[in-house]
Design goal:
The protein is an alpha+beta fold and about 180 residues long. The protein is about 35% helix and about 25% strand.
């Protein structure tokens, strides 16, 4: 059960609490924290809520996901590794609603591709924010510059062949 600091809360508040990292059998291998406040009442929505914050002082930019009357914070393996946390461990969370939920930060490798091919940039910006965010996360999760550049190249190849799906290899035409 999460422990929280209480005060008068509103959608622009900073939320600070301790919670246990949980793993769900229903959701496969997802690891998550339960947001211990009534997100529906505070944020006046039952949908996704973009948030910025820290887990054990490691920064994140994630969503609160609605699930069975509460909201969850899905904690990636990368974030767990950076924060040095394991399943069922008590963690300290500080977060607030993202004041610019539609603002994206493009990796340098992607910006370079945009400079070379403005038509690629135009097509990328025409994708939905969620798809763009997924591509950006995929590029940024590469540890080496060459890996990030290769991922931009893969996205560019998907654009050129008309395959805009994330995480799927480009299907080659069989003649």
């Amino acid at each position: 059960m999460a422990q929280k600091k209480t005060s008068k809360l509103h959608k622009d508040s900073i939320f600070e609490f301790d919670a246990r990292l949980e793993r769900s059998r229903k959701m496969g291998s997802w690891t998550f924290l339960v947001f211990p406040y009534d997100a529906k009442k505070i944020f006046e929505t039952t949908g996704l809520i973009r948030v910025l914050g820290t887990i054990n002082k490691i920064p994140f930019n994630l969503c609160l996901h609605p699930s069975e009357g509460k909201h969850l914070i899905i904690v990636s393996q990368r974030l767990r590794r950076e924060a040095k946390i394991i399943d069922h461990e008590l963690v300290h969370v500080v977060l607030r609603r993202d004041p610019e939920p539609k603002k994206l930060t493009y990796p340098e490798e992607l910006k370079a591709a945009f400079e070379i091919a403005p038509e690629f940039e135009k097509a990328f910006l025409a994708l939905g924010l969620g798809r763009q965010r997924s591509y950006i996360f995929w590029i940024d999760s590469g540890k080496q510059e060459q890996t990030r550049a290769n991922r931009v190249g893969e996205i560019w190849k998907r654009y050129e062949t008309g395959d805009k799906r994330f995480g799927n290899p480009v299907k080659k035409k069989v003649e």
